[in-house]
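Here is one chain, start to finish.
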Amino acid sequence: MQDFYEPKVGDLAPDFKMPSTRGKDVTLKEFRGKDVILYFYPKDDTPGCTKEACSFRDHESDMSKRHAVVLGVSTDPIESHEKFKSKYNLNFPLLSDQTADVAKMYGVWKEKNMYGRRYWGVARTTFWIGADGRIKRSGRRSTRSGTLRT
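Its structure:
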């Protein structure tokens, strides 16, 4: 099985259009001029994903000071995102990538192996996209605590 291309620091971040908990589709392009913390997570309302989402929620003031917006992405449907967002009072939109097309564009659609069962899923990854649309930083797995440190 193959992995997909993952954009590197300095690359132009791939644009996307996904349904969101805002009730409308969201594109990366609409945030041009602001930093975007785009984080991919495997599944709503699981322990690691909940901890990560709540950390982003709790650091919202830090993000605002940097003129950054947070966008969470998983392959869960909007209905699941709405419940997750409401349950934990998340203060940022969650985007639904049910086809995994955006996960593939960002190279986070990975082959996984759990208890000998191989399957494809989202690898927990965060991209810090600058106001110019270029990737400033990226990190895998270490983002459970929430933010990419400067």
